[in-house]
Amino acid sequence: MKKLVIAGPTPLRGEVSISGAKNAAVAILPATLLINGVCRIENLPNISDVSLYCDILQALGAKITWHNKNEITIDTRNINCNADIIEITRKFRASYYLIGSLLGRCGSVRVGLPGGCKLGARPIDLHIKGFESLGATTTISQGNIHATAKKLVGTSIYLDIASVGATINIMLASVLAEGTTIIDNAAKEPHIVDVANFLNTMGADIRGAGTDMIKIHGVKELKGDATYSIVPDQIEAGTFMLAAVASRGDIIIKNCISKHLESITAKLIEIGANVEEYGDSLRVWCNQRPSKAVIKTLPYPGFPTDLQPQMGVVLATADGTSIINEGIWESRFQYTAELNKMGANIMDQGKSAVFDGVESLVGAPVYSTDLRAGAALIIAGISAHGITEVYNLEHIDRGYENIEEKFNSIGANIKRVLED
Ligand code: UD1
């Protein structure tokens, strides 16, 4: 079993560079299936979710050339629409984007129903409602979803919840549909804009991404023959911002878009930390115990749920009692039991948690329950006194490129160890 052994506390100091966005990458890779041609993707994060997606694309007949660990060329001219991808797609949640892209490309798709982080119920009813509005028929049986469409025809779709996944999936399904599709109450996350920009670069006609109304004018074909660079990862950048504050450090975060991080910047300033924005980089520092806060996670541009556990580590040692309300997922406070093993005083109340700030944390063996919980436990280990061992690294490796190397380059002391 692999674990990270972290010796703390080490205030983080220096410069760190952010990778391409995981959540954009896992949508752009299936989007390449809509192209009848070749495209080059740069700033691709080197993470296990990306390797898995590349395996799926290859199973479907795509030819992938790796230029280096962050740049690939994908040739999707010869796709085998009948390839069996059920088992491989069951391995992670973002495989649901294959439904939208293969409906568009092949008119038929069968995938295993998604796995992914255990954050509570993760329905895909809104995705299905979107596909069916476009003219598809869907059936779910034996843990698989089968969708078919003789023809997809543009229509207006109102999303009851501004779902990131449903917005992207419906966008994928409608790029090659006949006529115009309107997605109303669309999600506005930066990676939705990135997927739209990618598709437009390859020949699609998508307008309004980043607002709550997206219009997709169907085109006959995407020819590709272009290069696209993935947007910097907003959540990775936010993770380092929160690590700087939790460790009472002073770091410069390079290759990030400060506009995407405004909700985090505002909260950090409110609790007494310092943030300076320089366009594509940020300096974050904090040399005293932050003050308490009340936080509610919301869709973008609100405070992101994917930074909630990392913020929880900051509040675990804040001065006073803080409250976090989780506005997106049912079950996202499992990490608090792990932080309590490190001396935190947090009460998990289901959709909210109360953080009674303690002076400092103490190292302990802890288990990551999902990707962002894993990142939070690393930050806790860097900030805590003594040795922290973080287990279940497969969650963390899904979504963070070279995480221990990056933290070690700014002063952390983290070793990856294979335990007997
Ligand atoms: C995406 C992100 C995930 C992030 C989440 C919220 C990716 C690959 N993952 O997940 O990291 O935590 O956005 O920012 O981009 N819902 C329904 N029916 C649906 C779809 C969603 O009820 O058909 C509900 C969900 O249960 C949840 C809310 O809508 O309560 C938001 O989910 P959604 O935005 O779809 O999250 P994901 O796209 O799965």
Oligomeric state as shown: single chain
**Total DSSP helices:** 14
> From the alpha-carbon coordinates, what is the Rg to the nearest angstrom?
21 Å
Q: What is the first-to-last residue Cα distance? A: 7 Å
Main β-sheet, in a few words?
4 strands, mixed
Determine the structural class based on helices, strands and strand pairing: alpha+beta
Shape summary? globular
What proportion strand?
25-35%
Bound molecules: uridine-diphosphate-N-acetylglucosamine
For the largest sheet, list the strands in their spatial order: 21-22-1-23
* Rounded mean pLDDT score: 96
Which spans have pLDDT < 50 for at least 5 consecutive residues? none
Please tally the β strands and state the result.
Answer: 23
What share of residues is helical? 25-40%
Describe it.
The model has no long low-confidence stretch (mean pLDDT 96). The radius of gyration is 21 Å and the shape is globular. It has 420 residues and is α+β, with helices and mostly antiparallel strands. It has 14 helices and 23 strands. Strands 21-22-1-23 form a four-stranded mixed sheet. The chain has helices spanning 22-31, 48-59, 86-89, 97-106, 125-133, 164-174, 190-201, 234-246, 262-270, 308-316, 335-341, 371-383, 393-397, 403-409; strands at residues 2-8, 13-17, 35-42, 63-68, 71-75, 108-112, 137-141, 144-148, 156-158, 180-184, 205-207, 213-217, 222-229, 250-254, 274-277, 281-285, 294-296, 321-325, 346-348, 352-356, 365-367, 386-391, 414-418. A hairpin with a 2-residue loop joins strand 4 and strand 5. Residues 23, 26, 94, 121-127, 161, 163-166, 187, 305-306, 328-329 line the site of uridine-diphosphate-N-acetylglucosamine (UD1).
